[in-house]
Write a structure and sequence with these properties.
- Strand 5 and strand 6 form a beta hairpin.
- It is built from 6 helices and 6 strands; from the N terminus they run βααβαβαβαββα.
- It is an alpha/beta fold.
- Strands 1-2-3-4 form a 4-stranded mixed sheet. Strands 5-6 form a two-stranded antiparallel ribbon.
- It is flat and about 60 Å long.
- The protein starts with a strand and ends in an 8-residue tail after the last helix.
Length: 171
């Protein structure tokens, strides 16, 4: 998915149904296509990033800084073939996974097993079903989500005047 700002994936939030759009795209596509398996979800900043420089960097250092700023955030399937298909050098330059010299996967963040993708899909479906069941049961209480100071539903909502909710978690 392309974003105009740098966005980091948060697997804990996604498993609870927040910031899960990329996973929904992936699981919807895989559900539609016979034999399709998840390979990964990645955010890419559509805007070219700015890199702070001192002015005495070599061309190689500047290139490394630019590559680091262009690295995608997300997770990819813990499979060497998948990582190499996304980054032919296996260096992890543009994806959050890399291949060691011996051909094995480098143990770092950004990898998810096929079982992990399955667990994420089940968690999202359970969250969606709970929400749908609540709506069907008439549960329309004002209950905005507060995950942390950066992820507070009320700060993005345009209906504050209508709901008149004073969000207790923000105080």
């Amino acid at each position: 998915d392309y974003k105009t700002f740098h966005k980091k994936i948060n697997l804990d939030f996604a498993a609870r149904g927040f910031d899960a759009q990329l996973f929904w795209y992936l699981f919807s596509l895989c559900g539609e296509q016979k034999g399709c398996r998840p390979a990964g979800v990645l955010y890419y900043t559509a805007r070219l990033p700015l890199v702070d420089v001192r002015g005495d960097e070599s061309a190689e250092e500047l290139r490394a800084m630019a590559y680091a700023a262009l690295k995608r955030s997300g997770v990819v399937l813990a499979d060497e073939r998948v990582v190499l298909a996304m980054d032919q050098s296996g260096s992890g330059r543009f994806v959050p996974a890399a291949i060691n010299r011996d051909g094995s996967l480098a143990k770092r963040g950004g990898l998810m097993t096929e079982e992990g993708f399955g667990q994420m899909e089940r968690a999202l479906r359970e969250s969606l079903c709970r929400t749908a069941e609540g709506i069907a049961a008439g549960n329309m209480q004002i209950a905005p989500q507060y995950l942390d100071p950066e992820h507070m539903a009320c700060s993005f909502c345009e209906y504050g005047a209508a709901c008149r909710n004073r969000f207790a978690g923000a105080e």
